[in-house]
Amino acid sequence: MKGVIVILVFMLLAIPEITMAQLHSFSFEQLDSLQEVEERPIAVFIHTDWCKYCNAMLNTTFKSEAVQISLNQSFYYVELNAENKNEIRFRNRVFKFKPTGNDLGIHELAEQLAMLNGRVNYPTMCFLNSDFEIVFQYSEFVDAGKMIEVLNELLNEN
After folding, report:
1. Does the residue 11 lie in any domain?
2. Residue 17 DSSP symbol
């Protein structure tokens, strides 16, 4: 029996490594301590559950291995559901959900990060520098190829 286990272990080790990238997502509450360890730009994906373009990005753009590798290696990636009803503590401030009707509303932090020309559109990619200043916002569907271009351009600016 031990011989069979040893053979199985060697067979598994001989199989070429399968790269299954997985996107690492962080919370806003983690960002301060993460920046103390290693300064990186922050990529925030602001979305809603009902937005078909948001869901398409989650199922295509963020499933791209190249996008996942770039975000994991060079950014702190955060997902923010704009209709999240939980309080978020970020930069010594508490951000809350602001109701606008029956079970409708927007989270204050999503509003702060996704507001462009007086409007919030979904999906929005918001990029912050390591000092938590907004350096770039993109408010529409972004495919994997365009996302890689944007990420590379932001990295080259730093």
Report:
1. no
2. P
